[in-house]
Amino acid sequence: MMKVLAIFGTRPEAIKMAPLVKELGRYPGQISCRVAVTAQHREMLDQVLRLFEIEPEHDLGIMQPGQSLFDITGRALSGLEKVLREEQPDLVLVHGDTTTTFVASLASYYMQIPVGHVEAGLRTGNKFSPFPEELNRRLTGALADLHFAPTARARENLLLEGVRRESIFVTGNTVIDALLGTVSGDYVFTRPELKAIDHRNSRILLVTTHRRENLGEPMRHIYQALREIIESYPDVRIVFPVHKNPAVRSVVDSVLGGLERVHLTEPLDYQPFVNLMQKSYIVLTDSGGMQEEAPSLGKPVLVLRNTTERPEAVDAGTVLLVGTEREAVLRETRRLLDDKDYYRGMAEAVNPYGDGHASRRIAEFILYKYGMTKIPPVGFGG
Questions:
Q1: Is 381 within a domain?
Q2: Band (4; pLDDT cuts 50, 70, 90)
Q3: Residue 42 counted as domain residue
Q4: 326 included as an active-site residue
Q5: Which of 187, 204, 260, 349 has the CB geometry, 3.0–4.6 Å to 275, for a possible disulfide?
């Protein structure tokens, strides 16, 4: 039996790794899957672990108030050395582009343990956008042995960087697996402010912003555009789960605080959040994962960034890269609110990111590469 160790540390990683951990548990005679978390994010990580009923074998608990990238990197590297020496896994699985992902890959390399990179091959081409994620995923790609690319374009990015074709497998994105297993048509919100919204007769704009490169004036410009929208469209409501970063909150409160039909909430757990997305009309975000999730629910996405590592969605027409300038955000939001045909074109475009079976494909590829099956798996998209 091969031993697989899944390592992650943040809520987005946990959401995308949870269905894979569950899938690997379906092969008890062939794979033993154990979990280590750095808890780079604590509270937001824990609620995902509870939702998917995952109890880590190792929890480093590294999060501290005011932590810097230096703090996260140092504590994670030191803690993971001990975990890897104890576990001695045959394969370490990491996800995406967090500091935990890069550090876990580096620690595994120091121990000469193979690494499988889930959601491999995403690139913007600008090492400072997003920061530090772009370099985290590039460096992880240089250290990884197996590359689970969500799309054919991600595979091409890896090939251009010299990665061996036989080590790359196109799987779709595991976030779609998590999403489709969590959204429910009869979901009832427990938070009073969400429960009280008339979802049937309101057009809801779901907003999230958190990127470091958007702090300050870029965010202010976004919120000014949203203020104009709420003042111009009586049937529109904004629901904005506000990031805990004080630098985000201060700008949100100064521009949008106290406005009628603007609901500024605490960050939502994953289950109510994706069910809120299901009930929304438009999604405006600088998040990476929401560019994949919302199109699966038929929701147009306006990406509040100047670059994206997910150009497939732009090409497919499910998302639009609008940047952070007030006029651009205002113009494109108005267009979706005013032009039903344009809205329908984005809402009904085919999501290029998956079909809910990415975790199964990853498990099958691992079994095949480690000689536990002779049947080569079929990748996403054939």
A1: no
A2: very high
A3: yes
A4: no
A5: 187
Together in a domain, 162 and 249: no
Domain count, the chain: 2
Q: Which of 87, 133, 134, 286 is catalytic?
A: 133
Q: Specify whether 79 is located in the same domain as 31.
A: yes
Judge whether 260 counts as a catalytic residue.
Answer: no
Give 32's contacts (C-beta < 8 A, 6+ positions apart). Answer: 1, 2, 3, 4
What would the pLDDT profile of 84-128 be if each residue is shown by its tens digit?
Answer: 999 999 999 999 999 999 999 999 999 999 999 999 999 999 999
Residues 119, 269, 292, 312: which is the catalytic one?
119
For residues 69 and 216, membership in a common domain is answered with no
Give yes or no: 161 in active site: no
**pLDDT surpassing 80 at residue 29:** yes
Which structural domain range is residue 325 located in? 192-348
Residue 339 inside a domain? The answer is yes
| Residue 87: per-residue pLDDT | 98
Active site residue 186: no
Q: Is residue 241 domain-shared with residue 358, that is, in the same domain?
A: no
Residues 233-250 have pLDDT tens digits of 999 999 999 998 899 999
Tokens of 176: 């779609």
Residues 287, 210 contacting (CB under 8 angstroms): yes
Q: Say if residue 224 is in the same domain as residue 336.
A: yes
CATH number at residue 284: 3.40.50.2000
**Structure tokens that stand for 190 in this block:** 């427990």
Give the active site residue among 210, 220, 227, 326.
Answer: 210
In 3D space, the residue among 186, 174, 191, 196 whose CA is nearest the CA of residue 275 turns out to be 186
Candidate list 138, 212, 326, 334, residue with the active-site label: 212
Residues 282 and 166 in one domain: no
Phi-psi region of 79 (alpha: psi -120 to 50; beta: other; left: phi over 0): alpha
